Amino acid sequence: MPSELTPVPPGLLVTFNQTADSCTQSLNVLKNTSYTIELHSHAHAQWPTLQSILTDYTSILSLIYTHSTNLSLAMKPPSTYPAVPRLLSDLTSDITKLTSCVQFLSSWYGATLYNEASWKARETIDTVRALVQTFIPSHSFSPHDNVPFTDHAPHDFSKTYLIRTNAIHASIESTKKGLSKSNAQAVLKVWDTHSDSIQDALEECEELTREPPPDDEVNEESEDSEDDGWDEIMGGKTGRRLTPEERDRAKKTRMLVKLTLSLHRRLSQYTLPSYSLPTSAEATHTLDTFLSHSTTLTSTIDDLVSSLHPQPPTPDQEKSIDTDSDGSQIDTPPIQEFTTTLSALKCLVLPETTTIEGATKKLADGLNLQQQQRSSTSALTSTAIRTSSDNNTRWFTLCFAQIEKTAQSLR
After folding, report:
1. Most exposed residue of 318, 341, 354, 406, measured as fewest CB within 10 angstroms of its CB?
2. What domains appear along the chain, each with residue ranges and CATH number?
3. What is the arithmetic mean of pLDDT over 16-36?
4. pTM for the full predicted model
């Protein structure tokens, strides 16, 4: 069976280019469309329900799966050209509908869900464009294709279009399986990845704060170790251990990260669920705000931990770095950003303008929601829920205070 594509008729080549251009236009639309916060219910009156939008979204993905598969079969050498124009027309229509479907999520149902749906749609559209371009001579092969580099690879058409068809299938199957059903679910999904990242940072801190081995063991290890090339890639060995001041700072940072991890996990357990039901624009926006602060906290923690690694400064750097009496840097930007974000997060959890009773009620709402989602064999009484909410309010108050105190010691 021939593995090379026979020349595509000129008229059909125009149709391939039009479909590829349609994919590019849709990608640009999605890339340049940002989420717009709309808190007024009257603007949402004629909007499709979230369930109907997501149902249409997955249905369109199924159509793209079918039409792209049929296109690959039609173009398989020897090609069946008469069936191709209709398939390309169907794909163009599918891509347009998918783009419109995503845009229905761009102003009401939550920024996190919109970003997830938009990113997954762009991934699918990009794979469809790559398949269509396989049959256009000037785009037939891309350096991004996972084709083994051999003398025959550029001419092995069958491998290229099969790889690109499989990429469409993988993208769609992954999206249909993992797409969030609500903004709350999308937020919690990303929130869990942030918790994992903070956990990794904590483990890195613990590694840094371990007591160093004796000098003779270090020298023996250095003599026995082989040069695997990583030192050159990572900028070479520092040639020194942490100083006592640096080790003390690393221990303080470890405590900060540990407390932040506890706060982060407890927020996902008690606070975030209170914004899940009933769904409202305000609650949805608040969840996105929580996640925005979580993103910043996670990033600044990574920066803080990275700054703990000893780096041999150049003579110029040694003169330009301002330090206080114990040798630590003054007003490290990451810790400033951390404390600012922590304050904003605290205002969401324990707003100063809200009474303790109000904050406790919010936590009770979260506990009530959790209880509704469990089997009711061991239901909590309303009094028990209230007591648990009071305890959580106190816990958050004390935790924020301890984190703030630890962060202050790092400034």
Report:
1. 318
2. 10-39+48-178 (1.20.1420.10), 183-210+242-310+326-409 (1.20.1410)
3. 96
4. 0.79
